[in-house]
Structure formats: structure tokens, C-alpha cells
């Protein structure tokens, strides 16, 4: 979906790359012409796969405001964003990454080994934890709720989610 390259030279910029099919999927873009058919097939395939995987690995909060969450996740990897890492589930420098609400919650109680600071193992340095927190703040500010299993609810008495658009020129 996306990745960030942090240049080892401090005076150089970091680079975030987003996959085009993911952008279309995350923004739920309508397809304006037949020229975009291949992209549409990729997007639809991603949606079907996403629904199947989500039932087992992810929760509704993981998909809420997905594009925004991915941008925040990637920005936290940059030097200006704090240099967060994709923390490993096993507390070592190798292993499955702690992506998603369930895994972020699972690592949250883990403490750093005494006297050690290995960025890939420290729970409070996990990029996805920051991104899910930001989504949660946005959801709660809109009147929604999140339970301890990552399920979300709309504000009371609303059939649709309120607009999540962010005005830049106000």
C-alpha cells in the first residue's frame, strides 16, 4: 500500500510512496472512463480480499478513514514525524509487524527490556499505534465510539456518518 524511505543523510528529505491502486481504493474513487478498467479490477479485487482478511485479522477501526490512517502511519516514520517504526509482535528485531488495532493492543502492555532501546521492539514507537490513535480521535470527535474489540458505532440518531472532510481554507 505504501512505504517510507528515510534518507540516512539528515539534510535530505524522506520520501513516501503510495501505490496508485491503493489510493483509488482508499478514496473510493469513481471510475470516469473505460481506460481505468484495469485499475478498477485491481481495486475491486482489493476490496474483496480486504473484506475476507478483515474478518480474521482486522477490525472496523482499522478501515475507518483508511487513507488518512496510512498517511499518518507513513509520516510517523520520517525524522520530522518522530522516526516511529513498524514494531514486531515478538519483541525481537524480526517477526510479524504490529499492524492493526488487535496487534497494537496486544503489544501495548509489553515493556522494553531493561536498559535496552531497540526501536523495532518498543511498543510506544509503533507507527500503526499512532495512526489508529489519530483515527480514534477523529471518530470520537465526530460523535462515534470504539469498543475494546475495535468495533465502531455511529453517533446516536444518525443513519450516516457525518462528513469527515477537513476544511483547509477556513
Task: Write a compact overview of the structure shown.
39% of the residues lie in helices and 7% in strands.
Can you describe what's shown?
The chain has 170 residues and is mainly alpha-helical. 39% of the residues lie in helices and 7% in strands. The chain is built from 6 helices and 4 strands. The model is unreliable at 31-35 (pLDDT under 50).
| Distinct helical segment count | 6
State the share of residues found in helices, binned by percent.
Answer: 25-40%
Structural class: mainly alpha
Q: Record the strand order, biggest sheet.
A: 1-2
Low-pLDDT residue intervals, each spanning 5 or more residues: 31-35
Summarize the helices and strands and which ones pair or pack:
Blueprint: E1 2-5, E2 15-18, H1 20-26, H2 37-57, H3 60-63, H4 66-77, H5 101-107, H6 127-141, E3 145-146, E4 152-153
Antiparallel strand pairs: 1-2, 3-4
Give structural attributes.
170 residues; two-stranded antiparallel sheet; 4 strands
